[in-house]
Amino acid sequence: MSETKKSDVTVPAQASAPEAENDVLLKVQGLQKHFPIRKGVLQRQVGAVKAVDGIDFEVRRGETLGVVGESGCGKSTMGRVITRLQDPTGGSIHFEGKDITRLNTAGMRPLRRDIQMIFQDPYGSLNPRHTIGSIVSAPFRLQGVEPEGGVKKEVQRLLELVGLSPEHYNRYPHEFSGGQRQRIGIARALALKPKLVVADEPVSALDVSIQAQVVNLMDDLQQELGLTYVIIAHDLSVVRHVSDRIAVMYLGKIVELADRTSLYESPMHPYTKALMSAVPVPDPRRRGAKSERILLRGDVPSPIAPPPGCRFHTRCWKATEICKTTEPPLLELRPGQQVACHHPESFQDQAPQDTVLLTAAKEAAELVADEVLAESAETSAAVAAEVKAHAEPASEGVSRTSDGVSKSSDGVSKTSDGVSKTSDEPESTDK
Ligand SMILES: Nc1ncnc2c1ncn2[C@@H]1O[C@H](COP(=O)(O)OP(=O)(O)OP(=O)(O)O)[C@@H](O)[C@H]1O
User: Fold this and answer.
1) Alpha helices, DSSP H, located in 201-269
2) Calpha distance 322→343 (Å, rounded)
3) So which domain of life are we looking at (predicted)?
4) Contact 188, 138 (CB under 8 A)
């Protein structure tokens, strides 16, 4: 996808308290969506798919929040729950300060004007038997709204707004290309002048050449209409250009949430780093970029029985015992950058006493390019040195090398905190 026009201006990370409250359009706390698994004649519940398993975030007015993560991590479910197309099983959702968590269909009706969703599939989301005019005017009919100048005139204005001809009013979806259909979906979503638009993979079904056009259109409309977006995508290639802040999801949890500059310049969660390394780097000056790719072994584990502790520990090259036993909380380690990791990148280790890599981490490290390990080591060593300069002398029993990190003969070392694993350290019991 080519570059889009999003400016580098990010939404301010901090504002004074009342201002900040006003600034928040959507606030999600401890949000959960568990799908029950039932078996037998009595349909007894035997388990649950923990698609979204306790997430907290805010969406500020006028911003674009990107949500990324591999397939199955719960992004779409999160989108459907925050728009209340599905009911949450736990937590709360506040829209403009109003608790909408438990509103029923009738209670949600007035809010349907304000909260809209754009879907991935421009083919499946438009009824093939309806004309474009009928599709785009549906929200007016459903809400009983009569726009000034009449529905037809308003629909034609919307079609023009999204770059289509008003003459397309009487045509059918099959007469349009994928990009044009997505424009029709956008026109429909914007019909009632919503405040929040949740777009689930809005361009991933489109040709790469068309993706930038649709993203640019959404960007223009945001400026023009003052929209707030939540844009869901499976990788960073699209959201990196359009988002002010980005939430990275893994197995039903947010593992990192940061403004995009911080996320790109200094990702703190190893999973974010892996996702970033999967994005093709167009800059030819970044020599050897290809060899820096991190390959994640295997699929995302099942959300029916997620791994204990940090859910990413089974695939992480930095995982130690604590990662297996204790879930790291999502903490704001740097201003505007929240991360849930015991051994974050480029930052003081959160569990410096825990130095022995898990067996799975050693296997995962084989898939992490030497350049990545070296880069981790370099930044971590710098952080460790800085911490050392300001803190008490290192505690007993933990050895720190002068460069903060070493790579052992088996090619694996824990690099996050400048503590190196030596060959006589005991093996973890991770089996
Ligand atoms: N209605 C449902 N009933 C049971 N399980 C569901 C339901 N909807 C989603 N899931 C499960 O919840 C998990 C998260 O799915 P979800 O579609 O939200 O993930 P995703 O990150 O959006 O993935 P993708 O990009 O493939 O859509 C998956 O394991 C999925 O199978």
Assistant:
1) 208-225, 236-242, 260-265
2) 10
3) Bacteria
4) yes
Atom of ligand 1 nearest to the CA of 234: 25
Best of 31, 33, 34, 35 for a ligand 1 pocket test (most atoms within 8 Å of beta carbon): 35
Closest ligand 1 atom number to CA of residue 232: 22
Residue 122: half-sphere exposure toward Cβ, Cα within 13 Å: 26
One digit per residue, the tens of pLDDT, for the chain of length 431 reads 444 445 544 444 444 555 566 799 999 999 999 999 999 988 999 999 999 999 999 999 999 999 999 989 999 999 999 999 999 999 999 999 999 999 999 999 989 999 999 988 777 788 999 999 999 999 999 888 899 899 999 999 999 999 999 999 999 999 999 999 999 999 999 999 999 999 999 988 888 888 888 899 999 999 999 999 999 998 888 888 889 999 999 999 999 999 999 999 899 999 999 988 876 655 555 544 444 678 887 778 999 999 999 999 999 989 999 999 999 999 999 999 999 999 999 888 899 888 888 888 888 888 887 777 777 777 767 766 776 676 655 443 333 233 333 334 344 444 444 333 333 333 343 43
Ligand 1: residue whose CA is nearest its atom 12: 51
CA-closest residue to ligand 1 atom 28: 72
Ligand 1, atom 2, lies closest to the CA of 35
Q: Which residues line ligand 1 (CB under 6 A)?
A: 35, 49, 51, 69, 71-77, 234, 303
Residue whose Cα lies nearest atom 6 of ligand 1: it is 35
Domains, the chain, in order of start with CATH, read 17-250 (3.40.50.300), 284-337+344-390 (no CATH)
Closest residue CA from atom 13 of ligand 1: 51
Smallest CA separation from ligand 1 atom 8, residue:
77
Maximum separation of any 2 CA atoms in the chain, in Å: 80
First-last CA distance in the chain: 42
Atom of ligand 1 nearest to the CA of 201: 25
Q: What is the value of ipTM here, to two decimals? A: 0.97
Residues 6+ apart with CB under 8 A from 257: 57, 245, 246, 247, 248, 330, 337, 338, 339
